[in-house]
Amino acid sequence: MSPSIARFVLHWGDLGSQWGVNRSVAQIHALLFISDKPLNAEQIAATLGLARSNVSNSIRELLAWKLIERAPLLGERRDHFTAEEDIWEMATRIAKGRKEREIDPAEAALKLCNAEAANDPDISPQAREKLAGMLEFVTTMSSWHDEMLRVPKPALMRLIKMGSGVVKLINWRPGKSQN
């Protein structure tokens, strides 16, 4: 493996662990992403110096996230794998997966907490207001996420590239009331 590829794989592994993803999972993803050809588990283990069992578990996780897929090769009995190459598709799948695993359960829990708080005489009006505000925030962000995933990639890219132009478009200024 070239030094620049090794650096990418190691860096992606470090980033993965900062994002709450197992380092080995992130490194395997990086290796498959950057690889010019499909790799089997043995090749991955040998290249990264990982235990075969670790590679198998990591591959299962990456398959579940739909970040990699099996790539059948003629004359090969072993499974080979490739990573999604479209950066937007990869980011979208990660965003969807994280929302399903993290935001949706938080939203459901906040809905339940708000429903219970509405009938609980021991909860202050301020506490009810804080719970309602948190639920509104999470629900709004969840809806925004879903809406952004429906925007076609080229339009979303134009929106992102607008950067501070979006702020100008909505006429936002620091210190100005934004309600």
TrEMBL record:
Q: Where is the HTH marR-type domain?
A: 20-78
Which superkingdom does the taxonomy of this entry point to? Bacteria
Q: Which UniProt keywords apply?
A: DNA-binding, Transcription, Transcription regulation
**Annotated InterPro entries:** HTH-GbsR_regulator, HTH_MarR-typ, MJ1563, WH-like_DNA-bd_sf, WH_DNA-bd_sf
Query: What family does the entry list?
Result: Belongs to the GbsR family.
Q: Which PANTHER family match?
A: HTH-TYPE TRANSCRIPTIONAL REGULATOR MJ1563-RELATED
Q: What is this protein called?
A: HTH-type transcriptional regulator
Query: What organism does this protein naturally occur in?
Result: Qipengyuania psychrotolerans
